[in-house]
Design brief:
The protein has 4 helices and 22 strands. By secondary structure, the protein is mainly beta. About 4% of the residues have low confidence. The structure holds (2R,3S,4R,5S)-2-(hydroxymethyl)piperidine-3,4,5-triol.
Length: 379
């Protein structure tokens, strides 16, 4: 009797788990947005706020290794795949340091790492959002590390607030000369908002360097690399041209949509236009995504509304953008990559990957798919 009960209990648990799709394992033949995603050793993929680099037939997924809290206690992890469904755990690409005076000491915050390959130096360059240990999110720096091997180990070089001493393109003499007034205006009031658009925090940070929080990287068709990040207290995205070796800033940058509070930028280029999917600024809670579009990276950007459509679009299907993946060998095939954060136990956070679709006006959008595969792009 006892055994019968135990068998029944195990059976019903198994059925329940199967129903919740928790028992899926490699080899995968589809994407299952928002579900647990196991790597080649049967562990849930630990690469949050990630980005993908494609190199010689293989995709490499870099992301934040998370534990029970959101501080970096391991570093940046990397996985590899040739089909985008099944990922091999390649270990830690950039390890945190145990030296107390290191900027990337265990306990610092390392978020949204992205890697690009520099042909001229035959080097892989990783940039990431860095917050110094014990300082919350106040440091707002970008950090850089390099490696001769794609999977690492990456050598940490430095971190800073970028573009110190430089003004953005199209900054007027008036913007540059206005009085420093960041401390005198009350936050969230109309005069404050106006001043914000007008360069309140831009001026405050001009000498010491602009704040750099949520970030991504983009390499354009001509091989020039750009760093895109939330600056000015998260009110404005900045896009900056990187140096030829991708390891530093050049001082040339553009302010994107001042005062619109965009974060989590993910960019792609399609038929000559640049698109950014971003989010609003609600911490770990999801909010409606935003689609930004421009004809040129250093031109004027427009905000066109929420690219997510259908049920739960108001919370972007419970996700926040991190990267847009260009699928190789297929035309116009882009994947929206988002994070479903679990701040109470970050290691359990899942990934929402959805195909980018185009409406009759050529406008990109995303909608929910319970499961899907790459043949979707052939239809
Ligand atoms: C939202 C950002 O997009 C995340 O990367 C992280 O910085 C959280 N905010 C922290 O609240």
């Amino acid at each position: 009797m006892k055994y019968k009960f135990a068998t029944l209990f195990v059976l019903s648990c198994t059925l329940l788990l199967a129903d919740l799709s928790l028992l899926r394992a490699q080899p995968y033949e589809q994407f299952h947005p928002g579900e647990q995603w196991l790597d080649d050793i049967g562990t849930h993929i630990n690469a949050h706020g990630g980005g993908i680099l494609y190199q010689d037939g293989t995709y490499y997924w870099f992301g934040e290794h998370k534990g029970e809290n959101n501080r970096a206690e391991v570093g940046v992890r990397v996985y590899s795949s040739t089909d985008l469904y099944n990922w091999k755990n390649e270990g830690v690409a950039l390890a945190v340091s145990d030296a107390p005076d290191s900027e990337i000491v265990s306990g610092a915050i390392i978020e949204r790492p992205k890697v690009i390959y520099n042909e001229k130096t035959d080097t892989y360059v990783m940039w990431f959002h860095l917050e110094l240990k014990g300082q919350g999110y106040s440091a707002a720096r970008t950090g850089v590390a390099v490696s001769e091997n794609v999977t690492g180990p990456y050598r940490y070089l430095r971190s800073y607030r970028p573009n110190a001493g430089d003004w953005p393109v199209r900054a007027t003499t008036e913007t540059k000369r206005k009085k420093y007034d960041a401390d005198t205006l009350e936050w969230w009031t109309d005069p404050w908002r106006e001043a914000l658009v007008d360069g309140l925090f831009l001026r405050r940070d001009q000498k010491g360097g602009q704040m750099s929080r949520d970030m991504t990287l983009f390499v354009d068709d001509d091989g020039t690399a750009y760093h895109i990040h939330s600056a000015e207290e998260n009110a404005t995205l900045h896009i900056s041209k990187l140096s030829d070796d991708f390891q530093s800033f050049t001082g040339r940058y553009n302010r994107i949509l001042p005062g619109k509070f965009n974060e989590a930028p993910a960019i792609f280029k399609h038929v000559g236009k640049y698109y950014i999917i971003a989010s609003g600024t609600t911490g770990w809670d999801p909010n409606p995504a935003r689609l930004l579009v421009a004809d040129s990276l250093f031109g004027e950007w427009q905000m066109t509304g929420n690219p997510a459509k259908g049920e739960r679009a108001d919370i972007t299907f419970d996700s926040q953008s991190t990267f847009i993946l260009n699928v190789q060998g297929k035309e116009d095939a882009y994947i929206y990559m988002g994070d479903r954060w679990e701040p109470e136990n970050p290691i359990t956070g899942t990934y929402v990957w959805l195909p980018i679709e185009f409406d009759e006006n050529g406008q990109p959008f995303i909608q929910w798919h319970e499961e899907w595969d790459l043949s979707y792009f052939d239809e």
